[in-house]
Write a structure and sequence with these properties.
By secondary structure, the protein is α/β, with parallel strands linked by helices. The chain folds into 2 domains: 162 residues, Alpha/beta knot, CATH 3.40.1280.10; 57 residues, tRNA(m1g37)methyltransferase, domain 2 (Trp Operon Repressor, Chain A, Orthogonal Bundle), CATH 1.10.1270.20. Helix content is 36%, strand content 18%. The chain has a 5-stranded parallel sheet with strand order 2-1-6-5-7. A two-stranded antiparallel sheet has the order 3-4. Strand 8 and strand 9 form a beta hairpin. Helix 4 crosses helix 6. It binds adenine. The site of adenine has 13 residues, from strand 5.
Length: 239
Protein backbone atom coordinates (compact mmCIF):
# COMPACT_ATOMS: atom_id res chain seq x y z
CA UNK A 1 0.00 0.00 0.00
CA UNK A 2 1.11 3.54 -0.79
CA UNK A 3 0.13 6.47 1.45
CA UNK A 4 0.91 10.11 0.66
CA UNK A 5 0.15 12.67 3.35
CA UNK A 6 -0.17 16.30 2.26
CA UNK A 7 0.47 18.72 5.11
CA UNK A 8 2.14 21.99 6.05
CA UNK A 9 3.77 20.09 8.96
CA UNK A 10 5.46 17.01 7.45
CA UNK A 11 7.63 16.77 10.55
CA UNK A 12 4.51 15.94 12.59
CA UNK A 13 3.84 12.91 10.39
CA UNK A 14 7.21 11.36 9.60
CA UNK A 15 8.58 10.51 13.09
CA UNK A 16 5.22 9.21 14.33
CA UNK A 17 5.17 6.60 11.57
CA UNK A 18 8.80 5.53 12.09
CA UNK A 19 8.15 3.51 15.27
CA UNK A 20 6.51 0.27 16.25
CA UNK A 21 4.33 -1.88 14.03
CA UNK A 22 3.97 0.80 11.33
CA UNK A 23 7.71 1.54 11.32
CA UNK A 24 8.45 -2.18 10.84
CA UNK A 25 5.86 -2.48 8.07
CA UNK A 26 7.57 0.39 6.26
CA UNK A 27 11.01 -1.18 6.73
CA UNK A 28 9.66 -4.46 5.31
CA UNK A 29 8.28 -2.65 2.28
CA UNK A 30 4.66 -3.57 3.04
CA UNK A 31 3.69 0.07 3.03
CA UNK A 32 5.29 3.17 1.53
CA UNK A 33 4.30 6.29 3.51
CA UNK A 34 5.49 9.72 2.44
CA UNK A 35 4.76 13.07 4.09
CA UNK A 36 4.57 15.83 1.45
CA UNK A 37 5.06 19.48 2.32
CA UNK A 38 2.14 21.41 0.81
CA UNK A 39 4.39 24.45 0.44
CA UNK A 40 6.48 22.52 -2.11
CA UNK A 41 3.46 22.73 -4.44
CA UNK A 42 3.08 26.53 -4.28
CA UNK A 43 4.42 28.73 -7.07
CA UNK A 44 5.02 32.05 -5.27
CA UNK A 45 8.15 33.22 -3.48
CA UNK A 46 6.55 33.12 -0.04
CA UNK A 47 5.05 29.65 -0.50
CA UNK A 48 1.63 30.84 0.64
CA UNK A 49 -0.98 28.12 1.23
CA UNK A 50 -3.88 30.17 2.69
CA UNK A 51 -5.91 33.28 1.96
CA UNK A 52 -8.80 35.32 3.39
CA UNK A 53 -12.36 33.97 3.11
CA UNK A 54 -14.70 35.28 0.43
CA UNK A 55 -17.67 36.80 2.24
CA UNK A 56 -15.50 37.81 5.16
CA UNK A 57 -15.19 36.37 8.61
CA UNK A 58 -12.28 35.46 10.85
CA UNK A 59 -9.56 33.02 9.94
CA UNK A 60 -7.92 31.91 6.75
CA UNK A 61 -8.90 29.30 4.17
CA UNK A 62 -6.50 26.87 2.49
CA UNK A 63 -6.08 27.80 -1.18
CA UNK A 64 -7.12 25.28 -3.83
CA UNK A 65 -4.13 25.60 -6.22
CA UNK A 66 -1.37 24.01 -4.10
CA UNK A 67 -3.65 21.14 -3.04
CA UNK A 68 -4.73 20.39 -6.63
CA UNK A 69 -1.11 20.55 -7.74
CA UNK A 70 -0.01 18.23 -4.94
CA UNK A 71 -2.60 15.57 -5.77
CA UNK A 72 -1.92 15.82 -9.52
CA UNK A 73 1.84 15.52 -9.03
CA UNK A 74 1.49 12.64 -6.59
CA UNK A 75 -0.78 10.82 -9.05
CA UNK A 76 1.75 11.36 -11.82
CA UNK A 77 4.65 10.24 -9.65
CA UNK A 78 2.89 7.18 -8.27
CA UNK A 79 2.02 6.06 -11.74
CA UNK A 80 -0.64 5.17 -14.23
CA UNK A 81 -4.07 3.94 -13.15
CA UNK A 82 -3.95 6.54 -10.41
CA UNK A 83 -7.59 7.46 -10.64
CA UNK A 84 -9.23 4.08 -11.15
CA UNK A 85 -12.41 3.66 -9.13
CA UNK A 86 -12.77 1.64 -5.98
CA UNK A 87 -13.29 -2.07 -6.53
CA UNK A 88 -10.42 -2.37 -8.95
CA UNK A 89 -7.03 -3.41 -7.69
CA UNK A 90 -5.52 0.01 -8.37
CA UNK A 91 -8.15 1.95 -6.44
CA UNK A 92 -7.04 5.08 -4.67
CA UNK A 93 -8.85 7.39 -2.30
CA UNK A 94 -8.24 11.08 -1.57
CA UNK A 95 -9.15 11.51 2.09
CA UNK A 96 -9.68 14.95 3.59
CA UNK A 97 -9.37 15.09 7.37
CA UNK A 98 -12.06 17.47 8.62
CA UNK A 99 -14.49 17.71 11.55
CA UNK A 100 -17.18 18.03 8.83
CA UNK A 101 -16.51 14.52 7.57
CA UNK A 102 -18.32 11.28 8.34
CA UNK A 103 -17.04 9.59 11.44
CA UNK A 104 -14.12 7.19 11.04
CA UNK A 105 -14.79 3.59 12.05
CA UNK A 106 -13.27 0.13 11.83
CA UNK A 107 -15.44 -0.53 8.76
CA UNK A 108 -13.91 2.53 7.05
CA UNK A 109 -10.45 1.32 8.05
CA UNK A 110 -11.15 -2.05 6.41
CA UNK A 111 -12.36 -0.34 3.23
CA UNK A 112 -9.27 1.91 3.01
CA UNK A 113 -6.95 -1.04 3.76
CA UNK A 114 -8.12 -2.66 0.51
CA UNK A 115 -7.03 0.34 -1.56
CA UNK A 116 -3.76 0.35 -3.38
CA UNK A 117 -3.10 4.03 -2.64
CA UNK A 118 -4.31 6.70 -0.23
CA UNK A 119 -3.72 10.42 -0.43
CA UNK A 120 -4.49 12.03 2.92
CA UNK A 121 -5.04 15.80 3.02
CA UNK A 122 -4.55 17.56 6.35
CA UNK A 123 -6.61 20.72 6.77
CA UNK A 124 -5.52 23.70 8.90
CA UNK A 125 -6.95 27.14 9.65
CA UNK A 126 -10.71 27.57 9.13
CA UNK A 127 -10.72 24.83 6.54
CA UNK A 128 -10.06 24.02 2.91
CA UNK A 129 -11.59 25.74 -0.13
CA UNK A 130 -14.82 23.87 -0.81
CA UNK A 131 -13.87 23.19 -4.44
CA UNK A 132 -11.19 20.80 -3.13
CA UNK A 133 -13.80 18.82 -1.22
CA UNK A 134 -16.20 18.90 -4.17
CA UNK A 135 -13.93 17.74 -6.95
CA UNK A 136 -10.69 16.23 -5.65
CA UNK A 137 -11.65 14.49 -2.44
CA UNK A 138 -13.33 11.06 -2.45
CA UNK A 139 -13.85 10.83 1.33
CA UNK A 140 -14.23 13.51 4.02
CA UNK A 141 -13.39 11.89 7.35
CA UNK A 142 -13.62 13.06 10.98
CA UNK A 143 -12.09 11.09 13.83
CA UNK A 144 -14.70 12.27 16.33
CA UNK A 145 -16.88 15.08 17.55
CA UNK A 146 -14.16 17.41 18.78
CA UNK A 147 -12.11 20.06 17.03
CA UNK A 148 -8.34 19.77 16.77
CA UNK A 149 -5.94 22.41 15.47
CA UNK A 150 -5.39 20.52 12.24
CA UNK A 151 -5.75 17.28 10.34
CA UNK A 152 -2.30 15.88 11.10
CA UNK A 153 -3.19 13.92 14.26
CA UNK A 154 -6.42 12.64 12.65
CA UNK A 155 -4.37 11.55 9.60
CA UNK A 156 -2.04 9.58 11.88
CA UNK A 157 -5.02 7.91 13.55
CA UNK A 158 -6.48 6.84 10.21
CA UNK A 159 -3.14 5.67 8.79
CA UNK A 160 -2.36 3.62 11.91
CA UNK A 161 -5.77 1.92 11.86
CA UNK A 162 -5.56 1.22 8.12
CA UNK A 163 -1.95 0.06 7.82
CA UNK A 164 -2.23 -2.50 10.61
CA UNK A 165 -4.94 -4.22 8.53
CA UNK A 166 -2.68 -4.59 5.49
CA UNK A 167 -1.80 -8.30 5.18
CA UNK A 168 1.52 -9.14 6.85
CA UNK A 169 1.72 -5.97 8.96
CA UNK A 170 0.39 -7.54 12.18
CA UNK A 171 2.16 -10.88 12.52
CA UNK A 172 -0.38 -12.98 14.36
CA UNK A 173 -3.49 -13.09 12.17
CA UNK A 174 -5.57 -13.82 15.26
CA UNK A 175 -4.86 -10.48 16.85
CA UNK A 176 -6.41 -8.53 13.99
CA UNK A 177 -9.37 -10.93 13.65
CA UNK A 178 -10.13 -10.65 17.37
CA UNK A 179 -10.09 -6.85 17.56
CA UNK A 180 -12.88 -5.08 19.30
CA UNK A 181 -15.02 -3.67 16.50
CA UNK A 182 -13.66 -6.26 14.07
CA UNK A 183 -16.51 -6.66 11.65
CA UNK A 184 -17.37 -10.17 12.76
CA UNK A 185 -17.05 -9.62 16.52
CA UNK A 186 -18.71 -6.26 17.18
CA UNK A 187 -17.93 -6.56 20.91
CA UNK A 188 -15.39 -4.96 23.20
CA UNK A 189 -12.33 -6.97 24.20
CA UNK A 190 -12.18 -9.09 27.39
CA UNK A 191 -9.84 -8.13 30.29
CA UNK A 192 -6.22 -9.23 30.06
CA UNK A 193 -3.83 -10.14 32.91
CA UNK A 194 -0.18 -11.10 33.20
CA UNK A 195 2.11 -12.08 36.09
CA UNK A 196 2.15 -11.78 39.03
CA UNK A 197 -1.10 -13.63 39.83
CA UNK A 198 -1.31 -11.57 43.03
CA UNK A 199 -0.19 -7.94 42.69
CA UNK A 200 -0.45 -6.02 45.97
CA UNK A 201 -3.41 -8.18 46.90
CA UNK A 202 -5.11 -7.64 43.53
CA UNK A 203 -5.83 -11.15 42.26
CA UNK A 204 -6.16 -12.49 38.75
CA UNK A 205 -9.53 -14.26 38.28
CA UNK A 206 -9.14 -17.95 39.29
CA UNK A 207 -10.53 -19.27 36.02
CA UNK A 208 -7.53 -17.88 34.11
CA UNK A 209 -5.15 -19.90 36.35
CA UNK A 210 -7.24 -23.07 36.07
CA UNK A 211 -5.87 -24.42 32.81
CA UNK A 212 -9.43 -25.24 31.67
CA UNK A 213 -9.39 -23.84 28.17
CA UNK A 214 -13.11 -24.30 27.57
CA UNK A 215 -13.91 -22.48 30.84
CA UNK A 216 -11.48 -19.68 30.00
CA UNK A 217 -13.01 -19.26 26.58
CA UNK A 218 -16.52 -19.13 28.12
CA UNK A 219 -15.41 -16.59 30.76
CA UNK A 220 -13.83 -14.37 28.12
CA UNK A 221 -16.95 -14.38 25.91
CA UNK A 222 -19.06 -13.58 28.97
CA UNK A 223 -16.77 -10.69 29.93
CA UNK A 224 -16.99 -9.31 26.40
CA UNK A 225 -20.77 -9.38 26.55
CA UNK A 226 -20.94 -7.81 30.02
CA UNK A 227 -18.47 -5.08 29.18
CA UNK A 228 -20.17 -4.22 25.93
CA UNK A 229 -23.59 -4.09 27.62
CA UNK A 230 -22.24 -1.84 30.33
CA UNK A 231 -19.91 0.45 28.42
CA UNK A 232 -21.14 0.47 24.81
CA UNK A 233 -24.71 -0.81 24.60
CA UNK A 234 -24.98 1.00 21.26
CA UNK A 235 -22.69 -1.65 19.72
CA UNK A 236 -25.05 -4.53 20.54
CA UNK A 237 -27.85 -3.36 18.28
CA UNK A 238 -25.55 -2.77 15.35
CA UNK A 239 -25.58 -6.08 13.53
N1 LIG B 1 -9.41 18.49 12.00
C1 LIG B 1 -9.72 19.13 13.14
N2 LIG B 1 -10.47 18.35 13.95
C2 LIG B 1 -10.65 17.17 13.28
C3 LIG B 1 -11.33 15.96 13.58
N3 LIG B 1 -12.01 15.79 14.73
N4 LIG B 1 -11.30 14.97 12.68
C4 LIG B 1 -10.64 15.13 11.50
N5 LIG B 1 -9.98 16.23 11.17
C5 LIG B 1 -9.98 17.26 12.03
Amino acid sequence: MIVDVVTIFPQMIEPALAEGVIGRARAKGLVDVKARDLRDYTSDKHRVVDDVAFGGGPGMVMKPEPIFRAVEEIDRERGRDAGKPEGETTARAVVLMTPQGRQFSQAEAVRFSRMERLIVLCGRYEGVDERVAETLVTDEISIGDYVLTGGELPALVVIDAVVRLVPGVVGDKESVANDSFAEDAGLLDFPHYTRPADFRGLKVPDVLLSGHHKEIERWRREQQRLRTEKRRPDLLGRK
